[in-house]
Amino acid sequence: MTTSAASKKYNRRPLGIIMVLLMQLIFDARPIRVSGLPTRKKWIAANAWSLFCLALFTTPLQAQIVNYADSGVPDPVGLELLQEEPHDLIFFTEESGGGWVKTPLLDLPGRRMPSNPEGGLLFEVLGIETQKLTAKWEDIERIDFWEKRLERETADLIAKQDFKGAYPFLAVLIRDYPERPGIKELRAEYLLQDSVYRARQGDFKATLATLEELHRFAPEYKKDVVLRALSGVTDRLMKKLVDDEQFTLAQQMLARLEKEYGARQLTSITKWNDSFLAMAMEKRKEALAAKDREDYRAARLLARESVELSPGIEGGQLLVREIDTIYPLVRVGVLQTATVLDPTRIDNWASRRSGRLVYRTLFEMKGAGPEGGEYDFVFGDTEMTPDRMQLDLDLQPEKLPPPLDQVRGFYLADVLAARAQRTSPTYFPAWAAAVDAIGLSGPQRIECLLRRPHVLPTCLLQVPIDGEWFGGKPGEPTGTYRRDVVTDDTVRYVLAREPDSPQQIKEIVEVRTESASDGVTMLLKGELDMLDQLFPADAIQLSRSDDIRVEKYPLPTVHMLIPCSDHPFVAESTFRRALLYAINRQDILQGELLQGMEFPGCQVVSGPFPAGMDPNDPLGYAYDQEILARGYEPRLSQLLMTMNENQMKSEAERKKDEVPEMKPIRLAFPSDNLSRVACEAISTQWKLVGLEVELVELPVGRTFPDADTADLVYVAAAIWEPIIDARRLLGPSGLAGSTDQLVGLGLRRLEEARNWREVRDQLLVLHGITHHELPVIPLWQMVDSYAYRRSLRGVGRDIVSLYQDADKWRWQ
Does one domain contain both 111 and 248? Predict the structure, then answer.
């Protein structure tokens, strides 16, 4: 007999059962007993009318009843068996007429046929549950119980190596019959045969996982076979990891297997322990040779590779510490190496980071306090009068290392004065607006009289110091280190003066990684000692390591798109608003950059200033929490584009000019994977609203494009002190180069503020102006993290720059 999904569906509908009952009432039908009938055919004849009605009213014409038959056996249905109601199959003897029926699960002791049955079996036909039927036991040839049938199907599929097909049957058995004898063995055999199949396919990782699951589930099942298989697949996996030079992963896997199984059970463990020890000894020998010829860089790398290969190698850690003592060195993984060294850059992370190694700044930001940043005067101490109208600088050269100890008060006074003179190349408008007079009250004491009270005049004096200040050449380093060797992927910084102690780090090597995940791998493998910048997901992963410490930078970066060309459409605020509405910022931030994880402080922003870690964070004093970030509105974006186009046409007609041509938008981004991922997502979303977009990847170390090479650039800006950074970002000479009158007015009023209340009020006004005029397109705020080995001391917490305390680093 054949079957169909339709017949199964209709067999279970109540309408068929109701019609059977109606037919029984019309013909005075009653429960029929067949125990006195000589043959099975008489039972079918007695119920023929009811069965005919059931078929007529419950199945399509082309379908056939599949719940009973007067001959043969049910057709094989495979996986569709699990779509049927659980049932048993009763097969009748040839002497009684043959045939079979499906019946709801029979309530028999132990779910098996009685050994010495007496009387008859009361049952129902599946789909005709209203009919109680009885058959003599001698007329029943056998009963195929539901669970046995599932077991048989599972075993047959396992034998055919159809493990995907066997799994659903096995899952039902485990769920419904967990205590049934043989189920545990069946599951164990499934796992064993599945592992053999996967091994033949070359999927050794899956093979190992399956075998380990089998060993945990049934430790004694074919124990010798399973352990031999585990040993064999471990051997293959270890060889692949070693060939790929993934020694850390190989050691981690080997240590885990040895802890769980022991070398006695897995012979491959002993083999690979011996192999790793041999390789480690060879590396150690090479490290000692490099140390003897004073090639400490090579010796350090080889010594660490030796320990990585065999952590327990005799004298391994001792050799590492010895080399670190002779020549302390730190390898730092970075996403960008710096081409320009400037510790005051707000748009270039690499330049700001590495610039701190090579150059000192007149006032250096050390952290964030309740009222703006906390700044150190590099040459001594400062004092502010109670009325905040005078700033005094006391120079203390005797306490400074060279060349800073050569500073002279008159020279510094000239530097400060030049910064306030419009004709000077170092002119800074905010300082010029704040200071009224500069004078010397002694050879090492400078007095700065202010035009009005200023809440934080020190933030206006973040001026890089170079060798020219001390009679040297322009650009000469004044920091603890100087740049030495530069290659495509590495930059080497070496100590610029005599070390303070033998333990002081003599060399810092920056290694550019292709991606943040590559950096994480290299740190775990021992190839790096620090990571400068982490994805939030990587920070969470590394924080679980016992050997790695992860810390957050206290100040977030604000990510934005900055116009950088004369593109006629990008120059219009209406069009920039359309661009913003076409970016699903929340989706990009949460899905692409945070990889679905929650990370405090990372959020979409409505303006160019940091929002702080939470609404009550004093770091967010420039951010108006009442201005909500614009949402993702692609239809509104298209409407604004149309409006902008009509406005430009009207303006061109009024001026009798040609209508500007809509050219593709060139979106530039720095050469790091975070910026690349963000800009690729932005480009895709802009194309959905009909824009043509060209992505422009900037050279390594660059964060701003050359003129006429891009229209917008993706910038991660360190707007850490909005009092000063607002002009550095939004002013006519700032990154955005804004000439908007409202923006200019907001900047001037900010610089005229006399106290923190006025500062905050004017910054909130400026936030509102930028939200409307969009001189920059705000995206999101990110909280960045760094990671380093716990054995490296003195790195510090709450540092705003990785190298802030680099002169204090020491290997333990």
Answer: no
Residue 635 burial by CB count (10 A; 0-12/13-18/19+): exposed, middle or buried? Answer: exposed
Counted domains in the chain: 5
Last residue of a domain, one of 116, 144, 172: 144
Q: Is residue 178 a part of any domain in this protein?
A: no
Locate 392 and state its tokens.
């005094």
Residues 501 and 464 in one domain: no
Are residues 723 and 617 both part of a single domain?
yes
| CA–centroid distance for 705 within its chain | 28
Q: Is the distance from CB of 93 to CB of 139 less than 8 angstroms?
A: yes
pLDDT tens string 109-144? 989 988 888 889 999 998 887 788 889 999 999 999
User: What is the CATH classification number for the domain harbouring 649?
Assistant: 3.10.105.10
Residues 486 and 574 occupy one common structural domain = no
- Asked whether the CA dihedral 667, 672, 675, 679 is positive or negative, the reply is positive
Cα–Cα distance between 450 and 753 in angstroms, integer?
13
φ/ψ of residue 387, rounded to 5: -85, 0
Q: Name the 3-class secondary structure at 694.
A: strand
Nearest CA to 715 out of 614, 518, 533, 564 is that of 564
Give SS3 for 730. helix
CA distance 301 to 526: 9
* pLDDT, tens digit (0-9, with 9 covering 90-100), for 579-601: 999 999 999 999 999 988 888 89
pLDDT value for 72:
86
- Is residue 6 scored above 60 in pLDDT? no
Q: Cα torsion for 180, 184, 190, 193, to the nearest 10°?
A: -140
Q: Are strands 100-104 and 87-92 parallel, antiparallel or unpaired?
A: antiparallel
Based on the fold, state whether residues 109 and 227 are members of the same structural domain: no
Residue 604's SS3 state is strand
Closest CA to 743 of 607, 593, 629, 594: 607
In-domain check, residue 771:
yes
The DSSP output letter for 495 is E
Q: pTM of the full predicted structure?
A: 0.71
Decide which of 85, 119, 144 is a domain's last residue. Answer: 144
797 & 768 share domain? no
Q: What is the pLDDT of residues 460-470, one digit of tens each?
A: 999 999 999 99
Same-domain check for residues 580 and 723 = yes
Distance CA 249, CA 691 (A): 46
Q: Is 810 helix (H, G, I), strand (E, B) or coil?
A: strand
Do residue 452 and residue 373 come from a single domain?
yes
* 559: nearest Cα among 717, 796, 415, 394: 717
Domain that holds residue 38: 5-144
> Residues 691, 665: contact at Cβ < 8 Å?
yes
CB of 701 closer than 8 Å to CB of 490 = no
What is the rounded distance in angstroms from the CA atom of residue 719 to the CA atom of residue 668?
20
For residue 731, give the DSSP letter: S
| Helix H or strand E encompassing 643 | helix 634-655
